[in-house]
Amino acid sequence: MDKYVQVENVRMVFNTRKGPFVALRDINMNIAQGEFIALIGHSGCGKSTLLNLVAGLTLPSDGTMLCAGREIAGPGPERGVVFQNHSLLPWLTCFENVYLAVERVFGQAESKATLKKRTHEALALVGLTHAEHKHPHEISGGMKQRVGIARALSMQPKVLLLDEPFGALDALTRAHLQDELMKITAETHSTVVMVTHDVDEAVLLSDRIVMMTNGPAATIGEVLRVDLPRPRDRLALANDARYHEYRGAVLDFLYRRQMRPAA
Amino acid sequence: MSAVTFVKGREDMETKEQTTPAAAVAPRPQLKPAQPESAPARPRAWPGMAVRAALPTLLGLAVFMGIWALISQTSPQLPGPLKTWASAQELFSDPFYNKGPNDQGIGWNILASLQRVAIGFGMAAALGIPLGFMIGRFKFLSAMVSPIVSLLRPVSPLAWLPIGLLVFKAANPAAIWVIFISAIWPMIINTAVGVNRIPQDYMNVAKVLNLSEWKIFTKILFPAVLPYMMTGIRLSIGVAWLVIVAAEMLTGGVGIGFWVWDEWNNLNVEHIIIAIFIVGIVGLLLEQVLVLVAKRFSYE
């Protein structure tokens, strides 16, 4: 399954008031099953747009997008999404937020007790059993993001899509959640696509880093394979020459070849 | 269509939410480090705080009463506070007597007015809230209905009374009709604005989870719109209570508005002043009840 997710010649044009705006062009990308892909680029380069395309939240203006051999025509439970701003429903408890997803995917086939068990398991996976019955406003930003991850994982998606999931968190919480995400994806063998603007995060987590050129009409500039053995340990990697080499390559791409547009 | 009212409603809601839920949230143990210090100090400070908090209110009331007493001194027809108080005591000693349709206790009059408001408002809510949801959800319907709403909303509620009398051929349904027509606009508009204002994030969740229309309504649409809806309901009840007095003056029967008119014909000015206070207090109570209900449904 080398081409679990296939993106071919995708082009995305938005119709704005000033006329058509080409956000993405000539996007070609294949993602293998179990692979962890990071999409990195300056803000405004369309990396979130690309993720939304894979999620099915928007449809491409041109080109083909396939997931497990089927065309992506809209959002589906086989593709779990974690949003940047957690997007939990504030009137539901953490448990209910996750249960909503579980019920939708497995409600037809399974009993209530099984659905509840699945929800408990998903929350346990992100270490939030103690906060199940709290509302989103009662927990920290990191915990909210974990609930978002639990919600996405609870659907047992074939592909996990993360849109800058840790962007709004402080550095310590972010590091902690990165470690947990690595552990979880190792356990579940998930295929992951993650949008990020954090170079260290990209190198630490991913198997391949997809670097995007600046928009408008952004495209994939370069793909970097990260051949670091798993499980990865951030402290050990801090003194690893290869880690710094990869890091340097991404930084070089971002700050030398794709100078940040005056913003 | 709704730009003006929307802003109005939103402001109203925001100020309310700043004042009320803030007070409700405060007792939660958020200020942990400060508590050990302030906890022993609080019991001593408490009575002083209460007096200090009540002082401006009491002072304001005293000044109000003083001005009232002063005016009544210069104008002999206008009864002063003491005379009115005595009259009120007498009036409320037997609020539920019944001597025929034109002479009933003040309690019956208040209840009659509240009943009309309840019926008119209830029908307005039953129609206005679903309509608001549909206008918010479907652009086509919004474009259809908005011009009519904008046209009819600024009309003084009493202008509808003749139509009501003509159609229903009776005073009581006509009064209820006036309440209905004046209470329905804030609910339609605020509910529709609430639906329009649902954060895209929540709708993205609905899309990604592939929720059914019913789940979207019960789990996302309804809870997200609820605060806006409550604002609409509060505005509506306020308008309905404002309008009932005027409507009843014109239609007669039993009710606080008719009672005011009746006492004017009897030249019983004390009772008119009492009626003004009653209308104010009942309106205040309605508002407070709804604020409590709204707080119950706020999820922040």
Please explain how this structure is put together.
Chain A has 263 residues and is α/β, with parallel strands linked by helices. Chain A is 37% helix and 24% strand. Chain A contains eight helices and ten strands. Chain A is globular and about 55 Å long. The model of chain A has no long low-confidence stretch (mean pLDDT 89). Chain B is mostly helical and 300 residues long. The longest helix of chain B is centred in the first third of the chain and has 40 residues, at 35-74. The radius of gyration of chain B is 24 Å and the shape is globular. The relative contact order of chain B is 0.12. The chains are: A alpha/beta (263), B mainly alpha (300).
Radius of gyration of chain A: 18 Å
- Shape of chain A, please? globular
pLDDT averaged over residues of chain B: 82
Q: What is the H-and-E element order of chain B?
A: HHHHHHHHHHH
Uncertain segments of chain A are none
Helicity level of chain A: 25-40%
Structural Rg of chain B = 24 Å
Largest sheet data of chain A:
6 strands, mixed
What is the gist of this entry?
Chain A has 263 residues and is an alpha/beta fold.
Descriptive labels:
heterodimer; A: 263 residues; alpha/beta; six-stranded mixed beta sheet; four-stranded antiparallel beta sheet; 8 helices; B: 300 residues; mainly alpha; globular; disordered N terminus
Secondary structure topology:
The complex is a heterodimer of chains A (263) and B (300).
Chain A lengths: L4 E12 L2 E13 L4 E5 L6 H9 L6 E6 L2 E2 L7 E4 L11 H13 L5 H14 L15 H14 L4 E5 L7 H18 L2 E6 L2 H7 L2 E5 L7 E6 L8 H4 L3 H17 L6
Parallel strand pairs in A: 3-8, 3-9, 6-7, 7-8
Antiparallel strand pairs in A: 1-2, 1-4, 4-5, 9-10
Chain B lengths: L2 H23 L9 H40 L6 H13 L12 H32 L1 H14 L8 H8 L2 H26 L3 H10 L3 H39 L4 H10 L3 H29 L3
